[in-house]
């Protein structure tokens, strides 16, 4: 077995208890790595640094992958400039036999919230909790360059399926009120710098309410647009409803890849 495979397996076993039932993961294990990426005026990667400790062999592979990416130049007033932002890498990892581990890039997000502290969760609406009703509210937050929340809007609300329409709407409104109330008090780190200047933007944040089995079936609600930016890119209703609370990311990062990278393997 190659040395870097040993490092990855040891890292997975230490960092992800889900994988600890066997010497190597039997099924797929999702691995999320947050970090920072900086791009020069030509669109080449100047720097990449993970925000978590990873084994040297793993970091070497990550560096090789990320530094091979190309970006559209970030232009401000007709001038190409440097840009730095948060980066979230999501991998599927699994044992492919023969003492080999596979890592495939499943998702990548720029402008992701790194967050030195956890965001305070909203209170669970009492009636929904007593009735065992689950829900998920996907919020859009407009933040300034310092990470303060300026505006909050609901992009989608999903509640437990098989509820009558009037009850579903009542629970949805309760979930929305609780989510928006706490979100206005959240504060984020500086997520992006363009030409050295902190920039604001819009973040998409799923807020989950689950009692009992997490991930139980939800009926996706309609998709709504942020009133401050009606042309922001959105996702299909089913994709929004499938996001989990770790999927905090920017909707409008300045960094744009020239070519797709999803599916790359390490």
UniProtKB/TrEMBL annotation:
Keywords: Signal
Ranges of residues in domain TonB C-terminal: 109-218
Matches recorded under InterPro entries: TonB_C
Record's signal peptide: 1-22
Pfam families linked: TonB_C
Coiled-coil regions, chain positions: none
Identification of the protein by name: TonB C-terminal domain-containing protein
The organism's taxonomic lineage, starting at the top: Bacteria, Pseudomonadati, Pseudomonadota, Gammaproteobacteria, Lysobacterales
């Amino acid at each position: 077995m190659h040395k870097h495979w040993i490092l990855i397996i040891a890292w997975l076993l230490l960092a992800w208890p889900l994988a600890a039932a066997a010497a190597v993961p039997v099924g797929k294990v999702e691995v999320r790595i947050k970090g920072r990426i900086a791009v020069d005026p030509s669109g080449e990667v100047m720097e990449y640094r993970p925000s978590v400790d990873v084994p040297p062999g793993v970091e070497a592979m990550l560096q090789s992958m990320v530094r091979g990416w190309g970006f559209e130049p970030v232009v401000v007033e007709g001038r190409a400039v440097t840009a730095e932002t948060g980066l979230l890498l999501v991998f599927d990892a699994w044992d492919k036999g023969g003492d080999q581990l596979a890592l495939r890039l499943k998702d990548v997000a720029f402008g992701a919230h790194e967050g030195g502290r956890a965001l305070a969760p909203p209170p669970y609406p009492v009636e929904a909790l007593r009735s065992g009703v689950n829900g998920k509210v996907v919020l859009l937050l407009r933040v300034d360059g310092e990470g303060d929340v300026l505006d909050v809007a609901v992009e989608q609300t999903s509640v437990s399926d098989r509820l009558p329409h009037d009850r579903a709407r009542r629970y949805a409104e309760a979930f929305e009120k609780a989510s928006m109330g706490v979100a206005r008090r959240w504060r984020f780190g500086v997520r992006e710098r363009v030409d050295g200047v902190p920039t604001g933007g819009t973040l998409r944040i799923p807020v989950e309410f689950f009692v009992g089995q997490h991930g139980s079936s939800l009926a996706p609600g309609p998709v709504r647009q942020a009133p401050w930016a009606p042309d922001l890119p959105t996702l299909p209703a089913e994709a929004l409803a499938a996001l989990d609370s770790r999927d905090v990311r920017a909707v409008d990062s300045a960094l744009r890849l020239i070519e797709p990278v999803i599916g790359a393997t390490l």
